[in-house]
Amino acid sequence: MTRFGRTSKLVAAMLGGALVLSACSSDDDGDDDESNNSSGGPSGTVTYGMEQPFDSYNNTTAGANTVANGQVLNSVLTGFWQFGNEDGQPVPNEEFGTFEKVSDDPLTVNYTINDAAVWSDGTPIDCDDVMLWWTAMSGAFDGLFSAVGTQGIEDTAMPDCEPGGKSFSLVYSKPYADWLTAGPGNGNTVIMPAHVVAEQGGFDSPEAFLEALRGDDPSVLQDAADFYNNGWLLNGALPDPSLIPSSGPYMVTGYEPEQSVTLTYNENYWGTPPAAETIVIRQIPDSEQVQALQNGEIDVIQPQPTVDMAQQIDSASGIESQVYNQYTYEHLDFNFNQGPFADSLALRQAFALCVPRETLVENLIQPVVPDAEVLNARNTAPWDPGYDQSVQASQEYIDEFGTQDIDRAHEILEQEDAVGTTVRLATLDNQRRNDAGALIADACNQAGFDVQFSSTADFFDTNGALAQNAFDVAMFAWAGSPDRSGWNSTYRTVQECTPEGKGNNNGCYSNPEMDDLLDQVLRASDEQQAIDLTSQIEALLWQDMVTIPLYQHPGITAWGSTVENVVPNPSQNGIVWNVAEWSKS
Predict the structure, then answer these.
(1) What is the pLDDT of residue 578?
(2) Which of 54, 61, 171, 349 is 20 to 30 Å apart from 101, CA to CA?
(3) CATH classification code of 2-80+238-326+557-584
């Protein structure tokens, strides 16, 4: 899952507030686009507008798991699969390699990396890279290498691949329903370049690094882990080009802070060349993207839709657009680590009662999607099998705490001697969230809370409110996929409530009963059994009042009529899932 702003297979959505440097800046602003030339090779430039900043070349870590990072790197760092096509389902990437389940008992999946697969610097993609991936994703060495989540991979044996080898197996000690997307893939599950980490970690050779990864002494890996966790962060400039080799059709070659990222054709890519030679990703506020599209400054946008924006797109000429469902939902997270809600179910229930969920949907979503409704389940989209059952399983809690009742909220505060309780409500700075925050603050202040609402540009950053637990209630969106493993870590007990340790469980909620249910749903091979378990999970989330679901995000994409092959995608990969196919006529 990825926060729309941050990314696991459930990505946090910085959605317009939703899921790495010797600078090689690009002077190309996308205004001199050309069509593909007759030679058939990559040519021309397509410019994509995105609101949130690109801030790390490694979005597999808990702190860098954002939609923005994932969208920039989607065609730069690749793997065996991605969430693709119009339905956002997992799609194998046979250009990277092949994989096959060869046994159910024990569950065993064999992987083979393409013999021709190399990093853009010419280094083969092989066993060293796989072992670095496995070490991080399995949580080995007590999570020394940061990862968004370890579901599934923590139950696999260390791959027995040889130095320089291209084949390996994942052998599971337990059944795992989402095995297809457990292996190295796209987004926050990608393979990172082990030869770079080895060098930065002080190892003389990749072989020595591989030996250390197979060993039992974490101290010799500390420098390598420090680089893996923090060395790819962008602090005003790109890392040196030698530190950011690509495994996809594009390379990151230019970066202007708070302005743009430039991707150019990776000539060492062994697969199908991209259509456009250059992709420029410009950082533009959602509110300005439609005008920039009309002016020809950018070619493709995927903003957080508002009424004005939808009307503006509808009335514009030379623009194509589509509104669609997506696996992204807005919610409120309580802080279980500190603050007034950490140990008080009653106060969490009181806050739920004052939140104007119906008003938020009526004012912010229904003008774009008239039949939109309040969301009453977190882990199943309204159009997917199991949603109605999840709602039914939680109905007693939804009836009691799911509809705004300011008077009852005030009564609870009086009973708890908590009238005037200060609540830090934090979110990302954008118009829709500012509007939502104002509505929530006004209603909950009427109930007797003292809501201090803040929206900041760095909300999703490593030093921002979400990562640093500097909130009592956090408002953001999760962008995900149909996978159960995508949302599983969001409610699982964490090793430590730190930016590096909490993964997707931003509020650091913990309940052994929940952990057991989460384990069971990952092992469920029968779809109805999975739906039944998901329904139990939803009921417990309502019972403990862990989060408050608000609404499903509608997706909107618009592009210039001269741009070809833009295909909206409802998953966390979003519109850029096939960016390598974009071209201008």
Answers:
(1) 97
(2) 61
(3) 3.40.190.10
